[in-house]
Write a structure and sequence with these properties.
Number of strands: 0
Pfam family, one: DUF6905
Distance between the termini: 31 Å
Keywords: Membrane, Transmembrane, Transmembrane helix
Shape: globular
Structural class: mainly alpha
InterPro entries: DUF6905 (IPR054200)
Length: about 130
């Protein structure tokens, strides 16, 4: 059956880990945003670092060696965007589409450059 692989424990743990990251980062951001220009540094040290440790280092996110890697940043971005759509409505979310498009283009460009450099170093796995 198609659902047997989807409902495995690894995928359930991964789903819950993305939920944890997608909930904690925006929630805790409201506390560090009062630091103004230093909020990004504080968020990296106090929020992203510990969440990365819990989610990646402790192995909550399952990454198959044959699959494309999806980082917790994608889960956080989708969670924040969805929260804003539910809070402010679909119409107000159109103003963020240029940012999402540019982020997507940047991600594709980074993947192409990374692939090029790894190929150049002789890594046969890419």
């Amino acid at each position: 059956m198609w659902y047997q692989g989807v409902l495995s424990l690894n995928y359930i743990k991964t789903f819950l880990a993305y939920c944890l990251a997608g909930f904690l980062v925006p929630y805790l951001w409201s506390y560090v945003s009062i630091l103004g220009i230093y909020a990004g540094f504080a968020a990296a040290i106090l929020i992203i670092g510990p969440v990365w440790y819990i989610v990646h280092y402790k192995g909550l996110i399952y990454q198959d060696s044959e699959a494309a890697t999806v980082d917790m940043g994608a889960g956080i971005a989708i969670a924040v965007f969805t929260r804003d759509v539910l809070s402010n409505g679909v119409i107000s979310s159109f103003s963020s589409l240029p940012t999402i498009i540019l982020l997507s283009i940047g991600a594709v460009f980074a993947a192409v450059v990374s692939h090029y450099f790894e190929r150049r170093q002789g890594n046969p796995d890419v």
